[in-house]
Amino acid sequence: MLQDWEHIYPGRTESIFSAICKVEAGYLADTALFDFAGLGTDVAERNE
């Protein structure tokens, strides 16, 4: 998939991995930034 993307949009793969490298650990699973408790586990529940 990434190779196809790179062919169509040169530089896309580099951009993705550059962004991943800039993620701050404090942002991961930060409940102040996202309501993780509100996530459902049932697929049918998500489609409502």
Written description of the protein model:
This protein has 48 residues and is an all-alpha fold. It has three helices and no strands. It has one domain (2-46). Helix content is 44%, strand content 0%. The longest helix is centred in the middle third of the chain and has 10 residues, at 12-21. The radius of gyration is 16 Å and the shape is flat. The relative contact order is 0.09.
Key structural traits:
mainly alpha; 48 residues; 3 helices
> How many whole angstroms does the radius of gyration measure?
16 Å
Shape verdict = flat
Residue share in helix: 40-55%
N-to-C terminal Cα separation, in Å?
Answer: 30 Å
Individual helix count? 3
Q: Let me know the largest β-sheet.
A: none
The number of strands is 0
* Whole-number total of structural domains: 1
Strand content: under 5%
Quote the average pLDDT: 84
Structural class: mainly alpha
Uncertain regions spanning at least 5 consecutive residues:
none
Summarize it.
With 48 residues, this protein is mainly α. The chain has helices at residues 2-8, 12-21, 43-46. The model has no long low-confidence stretch (mean pLDDT 84).
Task: Detail the topology: elements first, then pairings.
Layout: H1 2-8, H2 12-21, H3 43-46
